[in-house]
């Protein structure tokens, strides 16, 4: 596929970006399809989804990015066309291209990425844009660009908020010293009402444990039991979805979650979530005791 992309871009003209995008579509449709059951039916109805595997799309996106180099003005039209008109597959390819262009001119491309985030229709759209489009810039120079994501966290569009916290949440894996700032930013969305944003907040807190575990333990200690029910799901999912490697470090939180589980004000749904977290912590405590 790499050679095919290089060949079709030898005569690329930004004024005919749609023609190039169509040829790229013809190329990715030759790749193997995968099961798309994880994307809800109602979201699948909002965009074209051919079901092409991400590895094949990334190969195409990487090849386009290499050919584009630092030609930001020339290739932004292609990225925009792929994103706007060529469905789920076009968006995966576009995000990779945008990530490369953003490295060349961050100040120009990051606002474009924020605008595109507002047009996402699935969690995959948002996560791909975050990880492939935005993260390369922020990960390269977090001190310079992390602050530009703070407005994303208060954006009225849920996908913009999800994309922003997804990028932020992945930073402690490379920069442990940013764990506390990551948690401070995640805290702003702890009570977000949207389920897709909540899942990303839980992800950000869990990924922070790959930076500095004590900081995450302290974060949970401050918030469990919570003062408002809107953060209940996140605080339970952080434990229930924590990686097996990190979970033993949180066994000491068992008492707090057990006390929380006795709160008579918990709704039946929240009570079930807290009970699940308690079970996970009890098992972690048992394993730590046997170690």
Write a brief structural summary.
66% of the residues lie in helices and 0% in strands. The protein is an all-alpha fold and 291 residues long.
List keywords for this structure.
mainly alpha; Leucine-rich Repeat Variant; 2 domains
Tell me about this structure.
The chain contains 16 helices and no strands. With 291 residues, it is mostly helical. It has 2 domains: 1-140, no CATH class; 145-291, Leucine-rich Repeat Variant. Helix 1 packs across helix 4 and helix 14 (232-240) packs parallel to helix 16 (268-290). The protein is elongated. The termini are far apart. The mean pLDDT is 94.
Name the average pLDDT: 94
Total helical elements: 16
Name the helix and strand elements from N-terminus to C-terminus, one letter apiece.
HHHHHHHHHHHHHHHH
Distance between the termini: 50 Å
The structural class is mainly alpha
Radius of gyration: 21 Å
What share of residues is helical? 55-70%
Per CATH, the superfamily of the largest domain is: Leucine-rich Repeat Variant
**CATH fold category name of the largest domain:** Leucine-rich Repeat Variant
Portion of residues in beta strands equals: under 5%
Main beta-sheet strand count, sense and barrel state? none
